[in-house]
Amino acid sequence: MKSLFKIWKIVNVADNERALLFRRSRFERVLPPGRHRIWLLSGDVRVETYDITEVVFDAIKAKFLLNTYSEVLGEYLQSYELSDQQVGLFYRDGNLVDILPPGSYRAVWKGGETVRVGIVDISREYTIDDNVLGLLGRGACASQIRIAAQAVSYNEVPDEHVGLLVVNGKLEKALQPGRYGFWKYNRSIAVKLIDMRLQTIEVSGQEILTKDRVSLRINLSGSFKITDPQRVALKLSDYKNHIYRELQLSLREAVGTQTLDSLLADKDRLNIVIATAIHKKLAHYGIEIVSVGVKDIILPGDMKMILNQVVEAQKESEANLIKRREETQAMRSLHNTAKMMDNNPTLLRLKELESLEKVSTRIDKISVYGGLEGVLNDLVKLRPTA
């Protein structure tokens, strides 16, 4: 019995396993499920057992074995080999589970699961089909997420935005709102988002000298929108910085050509001058300036005190002028009244009675001498009797 065990080797292969028999380091045959007796006297024997439920045949020399012993191994294994311009979508039982990069080779066991490899030619078309993109984005496990991140450039373009697709440093096309996927293999992919909504920009704390050499600190606000995103991307590396610089220069030029009084008198004119100056410059790059407005004009402390004194003197002068005008008007009115009474005794008498009424309203008690006739005739006289 002992000699029998030295001559034969018993190998048990489960239903979910396949075994490769090597004799003297050379492949001999495949051992299907069952019990096998291996003759040992013909040379050194090695048995490699594989679980076919793992599907992938991951032997180091898989490609060599399949190419050399295709007639024997072809019954048990299926191979897929991709060119440098192809990507493989690896499906198991209809589920996408892996991405095969260009130039890769994969062998799978037959009989375990339904396996399929979808071949995608990326030599010219690098856009991923939307259905495939949805499968790649589901992230069933951490390894799939890692593989997808290495293989796929996934991009989302929000509403009111435009995506600019740049391939190998060249602008290819504009992308409308939606989701997009591109194969990274063999090329550099980048998507730059351009905001098409109305945007604002602030130019704050600008120290500028006016024409009459008064130092001012001015805060400017502007709003703009992109009208041609492709031109903006091609012509400007940083369009917001360019708009800021143009507003800053236009503000300095507009303020430097006006005196302090003219600036304070009409700020709207300053806004118009700045907007007009930069409208054509920005339109050349596909940018529309919508509005420009000076928010604040801040004066130095001493200049502010002087202006307050000037304003105070102006207001005081205006008040005195109004007062003198009213006094002149009152004197003119009195003069006209006197002339009318001089030629009309009845009107004069009515005025005397009106004056008597006003006097009597301020007196609590009146002592009358000479009767009522004395009160009416002698108490109030607007002019001496002849």
Automatic annotation (TrEMBL):
Membrane topology, record value = Single-pass membrane protein
Q: Which residues form the Band domain?
A: 152-311
Q: Which Gene3D superfamilies match?
A: 6.10.250.2090, Band 7 domain
Entries under InterPro entries matching the protein: Band-7_stomatin-like, Band_7, Band_7/SPFH_dom_sf
Q: In which compartments does the protein localize?
A: Membrane
Give the main localization category: membrane
**Which family, according to the similarity comment?**
Belongs to the band 7/mec-2 family.
This protein is called: Slipin family protein
Native source species: Microbulbifer variabilis
